[in-house]
User: Which sequence fits this backbone?
């Protein structure tokens, strides 16, 4: 299941003074670029983006000059002191309200759960001289608990197949790293085993979200991407940790960094789906074990 990140969008944003200036100079393209930049910011944990206009332009499929213009010339974004990152103050204000509201709901939920279980616990320790009443109360409490357990482990719940697969799959991290190093031939840096717990958690999360075959496909796509391997005007080169980030993994998988050439498109058309799926299944099996 693909995670969706939400942020609010005013229905009359197009009439904002700064965005009117964007539309007057760059048209609808500039307006669209602005909101695509906000989408990119929403995907980052700190709501900031690195100032790499060429990479952003590659992702959004627009000219880097348009990106630079929208970011720098209309007062829509602010740069960090070192000038390496940019962010939107108005967007951050909105996200702060959303994050605070989410935190309050989380805390309220925890307090409610704690209070409920405390009340249940208190009810369970009440002793009366009437053994029949005590027995009845215990039976009721037991049935309530049993019902809750059945609710939690009910097989009628629709669990996404990718999550079922991740919970069943025993990931052989050593084989996975050997597979990655073999496929990428060190272009993204050689990853060493054993992995840190943070890397293991990231790998498991991506497999839970997309499946093990998609993980293998991501590695293959990254290996074939000239842009990710550093063949670009900025000198940017991806790393293993960059590839498995929750914001970058799906972009690589969806082909955002595929080589844009006639030969590549023709090759994709000529590849039979059955052969591709068979290759992915085999490679995923080799990388992650059964």
Assistant:
């Amino acid at each position: 299941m693909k995670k969706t990140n939400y942020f609010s969008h005013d229905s009359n944003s197009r009439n904002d003074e700064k965005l009117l200036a964007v539309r007057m100079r760059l048209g609808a393209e500039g307006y669209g670029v602005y909101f695509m930049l906000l989408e990119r910011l929403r995907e980052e944990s700190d709501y900031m983006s690195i100032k790499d206009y060429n990479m952003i332009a590659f992702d959004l499929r627009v000219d880097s000059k348009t990106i630079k213009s929208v970011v720098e010339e209309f007062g829509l974004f602010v740069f960090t002191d070192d000038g390496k990152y940019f962010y939107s103050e108005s967007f951050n204000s909105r996200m702060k309200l959303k994050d605070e509201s989410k935190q309050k709901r989380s805390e309220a939920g925890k307090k409610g759960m704690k209070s409920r279980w405390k009340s249940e616990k208190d009810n369970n320790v009440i002793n009366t001289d009437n053994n029949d009443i005590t027995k009845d109360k215990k039976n009721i409490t037991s049935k309530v608990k049993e019902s809750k357990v059945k609710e939690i482990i009910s097989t009628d719940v629709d669990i996404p197949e990718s999550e079922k697969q991740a919970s069943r799959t025993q990931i052989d991290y050593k084989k996975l790293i050997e597979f990655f190093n073999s496929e990428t031939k060190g272009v993204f840096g050689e990853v060493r085993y054993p992995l840190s717990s943070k890397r293991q958690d990231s790998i498991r999360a991506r497999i839970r979200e997309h499946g093990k075959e998609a993980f293998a496909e991501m590695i293959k796509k990254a290996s074939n991407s000239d842009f990710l391997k550093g063949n670009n005007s900025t000198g940017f080169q991806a790393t293993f940790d960059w590839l498995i980030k929750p914001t970058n993994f799906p972009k690589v998988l969806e082909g955002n960094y595929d080589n844009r050439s006639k030969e590549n498109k023709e090759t994709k058309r000529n590849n039979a789906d059955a052969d591709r799926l068979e290759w992915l299944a085999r490679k995923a099996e080799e990388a992650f074990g059964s």
Summary: The beta strands are 49-50, 78-79, 85-87. Residues 148-159 have pLDDT under 50 and may be disordered. The longest helix spans residues 89-124.
